[in-house]
Amino acid sequence: MAFEGLSERLQGSMKKIKGKGKVSEQDVKDMMREVRLALLEADVNFKVVKKFVNDVKERAVGQEVMDSLTPGQQVIKVVNEELTSLLGGEQSKLAVSSKSPTVVMMVGLQGSGKTTTTGKLALHLRKNHNRKPLMAAADVYRPAAIKQLETLGKQLDMPVFSMGDKVSPVEIATKAVEQAKEDHQDYVLIDTAGRLHVDENLMDELDHIKTAVKPDEVLLVVDSMTGQDAVNVAENFHERLGITGIVMTKLDGDTRGGAAISVKSVTGMPIKFAGMGEKSDALEPFHPERMASRILGMGDMLSLIEKAQTNVDEDKAKELERKMRTNELTFDDFLDQLSQVKDMGPIDELLQMMPGASKMKGMKNLQVDDKQIAHIEAIVKSMTKEERDTPSVLNGSRKRRIARGSGRNIQEVNRLIKQFDEMKKMMKQMTGMQKGKKKGGGMK
Ligand code: GDP
User: Which atom of ligand 1 is nearest to the CA of 110?
Assistant: First the structure.
């Protein structure tokens, strides 16, 4: 996950000030020296760092902090607010045109993840917004690109418009929009050609497509692993083409995250989505506020809850919530939850979003694949009803009996019980955080 190193360092630098009942100018200065180094080390653009540090200092030694009852925490709040603003402030949503279809042009360098992101975005629009997207293959130079998009279309059961590689990209794009109108598709996502470097011919061609189809969005796809280069690329594309938004890809990798933090300040254009993996469902709407909280170790409960909500059966969720509140969680619920978590994605990623979750060692080793679930099921089914409902009765001889009955070994039984306890803890934390934090919907 991106930002891991930065996140750790920032939290470290804020530790001292956090609990202080009195904060001096020197305290703020000391903290900001460390914050500055942490940001530079994460490859954040130095001008951006300078401005950020000055903005925080100015506010943190001002009245709003000094006069408050909890100055230490007030400083952290300022850092959080300024980081949110650096990342773009308010969430910037994808355009919806008043006349259908909405045309989105995908641009970016080769290898940035353009084609993959086109598929992800199409899926996101259909799954989360009930839209009907058409993907158009306008990259006629990379022979595999058209095929790649067509394969993606088949996998996702999504229409793809292509005319082979002998037709000009301008014509493909124009015809794709006409086709979408005819078929009542409400989005057209045009996958354009990339090059290894910013190149005049490419820019000319993109400009021609833009003039021909008048897109509602020109989304620049940038690879966050390329660090400062990503920021330069974004500046170049914006100057030459006028982009409307950015998709940062590969934020799941071990990038230091600097590009994602600088790109909005440097180009003035918002990050609209973040690519969090190679799979088609690994695209998240970018929420500056949530990302800032995640970086500062305050967790990202809202994204987690949203993820959970798309996978959860309403009645079961209500019952579960009641049980969590009253601490009545049983092993049967645990099994049920695991099957649902399996559909949400890797546990490690989910844990990243939770405040304080890094301390839950037991959960980290929890694999949720079909085989593991079958093993866990065998263990749970070997328990008596009493044991499933009241796990505290599980003593050594009962555990041995369960191990024998399920054909698993005693260590596995012990591990499962430990994980169950961790999950209980996690659930308790989640219900606590969920209270009063929900916000309105809309296009994300
Ligand atoms: P294009 O040349 O810009 O169309 O790039 P592709 O869509 O072919 O992607 C290049 C490579 O990056 C592929 O191997 C993708 O699977 C990978 N990729 C794209 N987005 C992400 C992402 O968000 N995370 C990770 N880990 N890999 C990604």
Answer: 2
